[in-house]
Amino acid sequence: QPRIGILTGGGDCPGLNAVIRAVAKSLMRQCGAEVIGIEDGFAGLMEDTPRVRALTWDTVSGIVMRGGTILGTSNRADPLRSAADTERVLRHVAALGLQGLVVIGGDGSMSIAHGLAQHGLRVVGVPKTIDNDIPGCERSFGFDTAVATVTEAIERLQTTAQSHGRVMIVETMGRWAGWIALEAGLAGAADVILLPEIDYDIEAVAAVCRAREQHQRYTIICIGEGAKPIGGQYTVRATVEGSPDPIRLGGVAHALAAALQPRVRSEVRATVLGHVQRGGSPTPFDRVLATQYGNEAAQLVMAGTWGRMVTLQHGRLGSVALADAAHGNRRVPLDDPLLRAARQIGISLGEPSV
Ligand code: F6P
């Protein structure tokens, strides 16, 4: 009877449970596999005693709509950081009798999976992140849900902005990629969308607000957390004394508000959506995508096609070598049709007027 391990690594996102369910059910039904859930990502394999639990048909049933991950996850566990950790992980995998491992994670987890594959581990990856920035994959599950959450937030900000005639700035997650800000900004009818890929001109942003003060009275600005002004510095993360990790401070919306306020007449307010974007129940789209990814990962496992990450390219399900997904991130290309559409319908991307 085959024995396959499964873990979720890195930041959580809606749809993880739908993947776990699909991987496990597919493997159980099609080849009678025993599926072993590893707790808290790679951390569960790095400790002296591995933390694992057998998954049953029942434990993976009824979870498709649940946010987060039933297995738990960890951000910082990287078994490649030391040879002893790498060796311990490989030893545990062998001792548990796992013939292979399904790793559901973002770019960090894919690069760990790739590194472990080079040490002989048989692994299949599933791309996960609300940021939608994994190389070789045009849509990661979790992204659609995050966009829906941000869109709803922008709609709520619209009504209060209208009532007060204010400039409302909403900051989205996405790290160095502007996908969430771009798609939610379009869906929520933001007037200005600022992305990490296009440094913004504060005067151009202020000019939009001033023009709207004359007629509509209010302005909605959607800004990705990795955006910065022309000539400015990234403020996406800051180190807080006493914290083991650099933590999020929600810098960019407040920095923009401070720069904008002296340039406009109306009051400026900033909202940082933060981890709200990662929580809650996945959208139907994400549930379906996650189910397809999970099932596809199981097919790769059963075919013995290791060292690959399942993916969606040009709308088609497939897989890419882990090596191709392991490095860098997929940012919004400057010729992306969504950018063109935004400009053409009069949304400002903060570009200087020529
Ligand atoms: O990569 C997903 C993500 O939510 C990013 O959008 C964000 O910058 C980061 O993770 C937040 O990480 P943490 O939960 O460690 O603050």
Give your account of this protein's structure:
It is built from eleven helices and 13 strands. Helix 1 packs parallel to helix 9 (284-303) and helix 5 (143-164) crosses helix 6 (179-187). It has helices spanning 16-31, 43-46, 83-95, 107-118, 143-164, 179-187, 202-214, 251-260, 284-303, 322-325, 337-344; strands at 3-8, 34-38, 52-55, 100-105, 123-127, 167-172, 192-194, 219-224, 238-239, 246-247, 268-272, 308-313, 316-321. The protein has 354 residues and is of the alpha/beta class. The chain is elongated. The structure holds 6-O-phosphono-beta-D-fructofuranose (F6P). 6-O-phosphono-beta-D-fructofuranose is lined by residues 11, 75, 106, 129-131, 173-175, 225, 248, 278. 6-O-phosphono-beta-D-fructofuranose binds next to loops.
Chain-averaged pLDDT = 94
The helix tally amounts to 11
Strand content: 15-25%
Helical content band: 25-40%
Ligands in the structure?
A: 6-O-phosphono-beta-D-fructofuranose
Please report the distance between the alpha carbons of the first and last residues. 67 Å
Q: Major sheet: size, sense and barrel closure?
A: 7 strands, mixed
Morphology: elongated
Keywords: ATP-binding, Cytoplasm, Glycolysis, Kinase, Magnesium, Metal-binding, Nucleotide-binding, Transferase
Family: Belongs to the phosphofructokinase type A (PFKA) family. Mixed-substrate PFK group III subfamily.
GO molecular function, one term: fructose-6-phosphate binding
Pathway: Carbohydrate degradation; glycolysis; D-glyceraldehyde 3-phosphate and glycerone phosphate from D-glucose: step 3/4
